[in-house]
From TrEMBL:
Family label: Belongs to the NmrA-type oxidoreductase family.
UniProt main location, coarse: cytoplasm
A matching Pfam family: NmrA
Subcellular localization, as worded in the UniProt entry: Cytoplasm, Perinuclear region; Nucleus
Protein name: NmrA-like family domain-containing protein 1
InterPro entries reported for this sequence: NAD(P)-bd_dom_sf, NmrA-like, NmrA-like_oxidored
Length: 307
């Protein structure tokens, strides 16, 4: 009899990728029956999953009763929350703790939590305004303290963000602008294509024996200069990178999120996004993959036109 794998955010970038990868894997598709959790099972994306054999269920992450219904009988769980839906760390932490509590209560054997570094702790308080990272990290700490068997997946900088970040400049060139130097290394990640590759590897490797380990999710390290060079090669469009002063960049951002975004850039510049030993840790994480991750060149090729 197949074990039940519950996937939260079933129609989103990460959850959707997990479902596609497990369904496509000859071994995992037989080992697991997928239950996809979404807020609205009637939406076309959810209905499409149901047509593929996914048991689509509705749950409210702030309601433990609906979470019990979603998780009952689950062997493994992939859990991801969306900070930007409410832009509240308190709400996101409560959602994560609720999933953790119910997982503990019903005896889930493997909880894979989509986490991120605790920026405040990592930087000794120098960068204390990145709640969309810190909240997920707090839930990771809670899961460990609760004793739920778990693996933690830490996604890198979304390549999808570059789709909106590369804009046409007044000089007619496509322009990418951040606040750090052009040789700063960024751990780029194609969430919709590659989350599933990592989670499938976790489910089918030694990580299936959960011991609280972290798996970093990125294709590798890419600098803005390399991003622009690749963009020009693939699209044939002239492009450039511009390092902007923080106060200038702040003027382009909504005030409510400006400090958070600028500190996020500082995390990339000064702490390699993941903190100490980031390169070595990512190298170890990439070794578990059964399929190569998406390069930025492939992302540009697949996501045109870049108008």
């Amino acid at each position: 009899m197949s074990k039940i794998l519950v996937v939260f955010g079933a129609t989103g970038n990460q959850g959707g990728s997990v479902i596609r990868s497990v369904l496509a894997d000859p071994k995992l598709s037989k080992e697991f029956k997928i239950r996809g959790v979404t807020r609205d099972p009637s939406k076309p994306a959810a209905q499409k999953l149901a047509e593929q054999g996914v048991d689509v269920v509705k749950a409210d992450l702030l309601d433990k009763g609906t979470l019990r219904n979603a998780l009952i009988g689950a062997h493994s769980v992939f859990a991801v929350t969306n900070y930007w839906e409410k832009a509240s760390k308190e709400i996101e932490v409560t959602q994560g703790k609720n999933i953790s509590d119910v997982s503990k209560e019903i005896g889930v054997e493997h909880l894979i939590w989509s986490s991120l570094p605790n920026v405040t702790k990592l930087t000794d308080g120098k960068l204390s305004n990145v709640p969309h990272f810190d909240g997920k990290a707090e839930v990771e700490e809670y899961i460990n303290a609760l004793g739920v068997p778990a693996t933690f997946f830490l996604a890198g900088f979304y390549m999808q963000n570059l789709k909106s970040a590369i804009k046409l400049g007044e000089d007619g060139k496509k322009t990418l602008a951040f606040t750090f130097p052009g040789d700063t290394e960024i751990p780029l990640f194609e969430a919709s294509a590659d989350t599933g590759k990592f989670i499938a590897a976790i489910l089918s490797s030694d990580y299936a024996k959960p011991r609280g380990k972290q798996v970093l999710g990125a294709s590798g390290w890419f600098t803005p200069n390399e991003i622009i060079t690749t963009f020009e090669e693939v699209t044939g469009q002239p492009a450039k990178y511009v390092q902007l002063p923080e106060e200038v960049f702040r003027g382009f951002l909504p005030e409510a999120f400006a400090t958070e975004m600028l500190e996020n850039f500082a995390l990339i510049r000064d702490y390699q996004y993941y903190g100490p030993n980031a390169k070595e840790s990512l190298e170890e994480s990439l070794k578990i993959l059964n399929q190569p991750p998406t390069s930025f060149k492939e992302f540009v090729q697949r996501n045109g036109p870049w108008e």
